[in-house]
Amino acid sequence: MIRHIVRKDLKLLWPLAAAVAALQIITTVLLMVPGPLQRAASIDSGEYGWVSNGLMPLVCLLGLIFLVLTVIHQDRFPGTDQDWLVRPIARRTLVLAKVAFICIAGLMPIFACDVATGLLERLPPGAVIEASAARSLLLFGIVVLPTALLGVVTRNLADALVLAVIILVVVVLGSIAASELKFTPQLLSTSHGWIIQLALVFAYVIVVPALVALQFIWRSTNVVRWLVIAVLALSPLVLLLPYRLALVAQQFASLGSGTPFLSFTADPKDPGQLSWDDEKGGRHLLSEPMARIGIPIQATLEAGLDGWRIDHLTYRIVSPDRGVLYQDDDLAFGSYQLPVVDGQNDAVAKAHAFLPVRIVKDAIARHGTLEFTLWLTAFQRSYRGPTATLDGAALDASSRCRRLSDRSDAGTKCTSTHPIAACTYVADDLGRHLEASWRGNNCRQFLYAPMPMSLWRDPYFTADYPGASSTARPDGMSAERQWLVVNFVPRAHAVRALKVALDGMIPKINPVAVHSKDGHGSEARFGNPSAPVADRQGMIYVVDRAENVLRRITPAGEVTTLAGVAGECGRTDGRGAQARFCHPLGLTIDATGTLYVVDAGNLLIRQVSPTGDVATVVKIANPSTTPYPEEWLHDGEVTRAPDGSTYIVAQPHSPGGIVVRIGPDGAVTKVAGYYDPRPPQRPGDSF
Amino acid sequence: MIIETHGLGKSFKGHRALQGVSLAVPEGGIYALIGPNGAGKTTIIKTIVNIVRPTIGSATVLGVDSRTLSPTELSQIGYVSENQQLPARLRVDAFLDYLRPFYPTWDRGLEQAILRDFGLKGDARIGELSHGTRVKVALTCALSYRPRLLVMDEPFGGLDPLVRDELLEKLLDQAGEMTVFVSSHELDDIEASTTYVGYLENGELKLQDDLAALSARVRRVRVTVRGTAMAPAHPPAHWLDITLERSVLGFVDIAFADDRLRAALAGVAGIESVDVEPVALRSIFTALARAGRRNADAA
Predict the structure, then answer these.
(1) Does the pLDDT of residue A34 top 80, yes or no?
(2) Which residue of A has its CA nearest to B93?
(3) Cβ contact (<8 Å) for A86 and B77?
(4) How far apart are CA B162 and CA B177, in angstroms?
(5) What was the ipTM of the complex prediction?
(6) Best residue of A83, A84, A156, A217 to probe chain B, by most B CBs closer than 10 Å
(7) Angle between helices A221-234 and A145-152 (to 10 degrees)
(8) Which residues of B touch A85 (CB under 8 A)?
């Protein structure tokens, strides 16, 4: 019976269904075929790029919505004069027939276009089908179901559109009200968007059948439509899902202490003679029409992946002098990009993306070199891969890095040509995001990082960073956020430091929490701790730049204030609470256990004894040949040389980085690096 | 009984469209449900085919509670309504193709015969057909599977006489095989075939009977008196539509019995003659409707 109803609807609606399918195909073709409308054009903010990247996908979406409403209204629900009411058609049969029609006429073309795109890009067929099906399912849950809900409670299409506008107005007014009330949902602008999507799908999957059943049985359209308006208008409330619930969900989704990493295997040596390595080590030349499409980039996320799914993959291209040229990170509702999950075994999952050749060629022609960084997101947790530079020398380094990223080579040292290369783990003050990032000219040994949630349960590190006593810095994070920076120092201490710090920051989910409070473990509070260092006894020291204090953390997790007074800014020397700091940043420790603090607000280097005696040892002079300290002291990393010199690794503006020496007399000289006086434009700011 | 209702009631936003209607439609024959506009005929019919759920009471159709009618029962029920919304963009033959699989008893030969008799073209879009032709399509769809029960809600409303005759002719051709439950104002033409009649007014079933019995007990009475006729001070309740024309007292007696009439007229002086004649169904309906309206005005 379902077949007969579907066939009848197809007879009636094939022109509309064909039009919607044609729109989808046209959009896909526009995005695939070189020309002014190709997605690649967006790098230059092309004149017509918005058509294929914005307008066409939107039109496709509206077409799908219109098709859903139309097919529902072929046998509309409200009213008592419809022919189907007296036919021997079970009502559930009718509903299933409508669903089948939507799947065939609405979602199938989208699915087919996605599959075609993936296969044209030479992606594994199984993975292509899986990823395409996942997108279709998402569309079904978030678009089709609520639209169908509108359809079953409206008397005609015009009625449906009016109702949609009412709901839109309610949602917009709600958003404005929330904005006016300075209300920011916890999950908004975090990395937990997938939870919102899942919650919506889950809610709709429950609510839609319930309301449809109600409409069938009750047949009291006015009541049900008010319920529908309420449900759809209240849908945004999923943003209010408790953050902790999200964490729990995420924790369930992960499997303990995995040690994933990324290996970047793109090998675009020469954009004119493009080639890449396949999974089995074979090298392929890009042939037409492949070369017109893009360079395949493959990221591999290994180990502990049982139960994980790669959510999407982002890559961005950064020009040394123009910042972010291109970023592709939007999976939703676009067939132009098709990140694909391949392999569901315990060990390996791979994601694929394409770097449009046109962009590569244009950028290299314009800038000579081109950096690009691959980001992989698993369950919305982002990992940034090594930054590669598209020229010959960098390619060699990239290859070496790839070898070293193999787990069996974890301890192998790798020569770095960049002074800032470091491995940094950062988390925001809510613990919402923990990120492994690799800076520098891409060749560092790979540091294993546990999945963020694993840290909470079973910290596991095998970090092996030579001399990395003070290299942590918030890399590419937005300045307005509070970030906890955790450094990898001698292993055991690093683990402890991380653990204590994380414990300490959990209570900060409560916005009225005290920012600085001594105590044990979770009782302790930090404002904005950074630059942890360890002494020989296993004591961890951090400076709290927001609270102007130097804190000490015992191996048992006892947190005390060694010097300074929380919240008070000053430059007084003295013992413990008599002393004052103003925006302390860098911190290092020498063999005797004496601490050196870069007191950025006072432009001083302060010496702090293990007993908390604070003395000024260096006044930093404003140099004429290097950036002013005010420019780089905001995030500098510091170490102390035996001759009393202080070296600060700083990055005034991305991607330039410098090493500055502050002599015993306070003289500032640049040791190495590149300084770009232009305003910062960091590729990672949006993360 | 192929249809039975027990104390059927239905309210719409406080308005009681049906009030305790208990009707019984025996299998076979044509049951005509008559009543003025707004009496509740359509509501009863929609309740019977489970388009509308009763507020109180119940209806049994083909031995099944109307609220639980399954496709099995619905495939034995034909339904034609003047307001029936057929898929406007489908062509007639496509609509028939669509419906055919739902009815195991569909008779293609009969379908073709009806189409031919009605002069319907298969390639015509339903939405482009006239109202009368759409009703023909609906009737074709209903008759082609030889339903046990054909329910018709005002099927002849707004039709010109020619179309109405065609429909009636076809309906009467098939009527022997099924039970027809019809509500209509156009009773003259089906009167000859109607076997049962029910009269509905203000949501209440006022009258229900076998038509032969009804015809036997409803008579138009004309009493001629010497001088000017006067209406009795307290006429019997079963005298309806009382009229006075000079020396003639006329009324419709809906419970006619010779001796009872004689007794009722005993108080009337100067009777010259009493003429008693059968009443057409339409006249019965009209008399009942007028009486109902008068009662409503008096109330």
Answers:
(1) no
(2) A8
(3) yes
(4) 24
(5) 0.81
(6) A83
(7) 150
(8) 49-51
